[in-house]
């Protein structure tokens, strides 16, 4: 059970239990009742003045988008000298050697 909702608030009319709109309506009613039961509303407003000031300041900024550089190019792009291809022969020889080492280690382990 939710600690901020009492048992009386959790009881829904049986006709509303079957349909989704009834559940949404009941949830809205619970939220409205919970908001009405608040005792100290100042807790919800204490940081709001600073947020409103910051929002107003940001809205009043005059930014000239034409002067903004989004990208800085360090070096121009250069075509590669040669293509990069995997060395199949070296990979084949390396794999054969590693398989032989693995075979020797497992064969002479006993």
Walk me through what this model shows.
With 110 residues, this protein is mainly α. It has a domain of 55 residues. Helix content is 55%, strand content 0%. The protein contains 6 helices and no strands. The longest helix has 20 residues. The chain starts with 6 loop residues before the first helix and ends with a helix.
Question: What low-confidence regions span 5 or more consecutive residues with pLDDT below 50?
Answer: 1-17
Mind describing the biggest β-sheet?
none
> Can you write the helix and strand succession as a string?
HHHHHH
Give the strand content: under 5%
Rounded mean pLDDT score: 77
* Strand runs, count: 0
> What is the end-to-end distance?
63 Å
Gist?
By secondary structure, this protein is mostly helical.
What's the arrangement of secondary structure elements?
Elements: H1 7-10, H2 14-17, H3 20-36, H4 42-45, H5 48-59, H6 88-107
Main traits of this protein?
110 residues; mainly alpha; 6 helices
């Amino acid at each position: 059970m939710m600690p901020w909702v009492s048992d009386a608030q959790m009881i829904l009319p049986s006709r509303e239990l079957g349909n989704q709109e009834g559940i949404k309506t009941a949830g809205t009613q619970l939220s409205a009742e919970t908001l009405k039961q608040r005792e100290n509303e100042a807790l919800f407003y204490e940081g709001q003045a600073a947020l409103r000031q910051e929002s107003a300041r940001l809205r009043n900024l005059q930014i000239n988008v034409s002067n903004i550089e989004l990208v800085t190019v360090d070096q121009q792009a250069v075509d590669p000298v040669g293509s990069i291809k995997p060395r199949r022969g070296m990979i084949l020889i390396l794999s054969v050697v590693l398989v032989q080492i693995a075979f020797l280690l497992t064969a002479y382990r006993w």
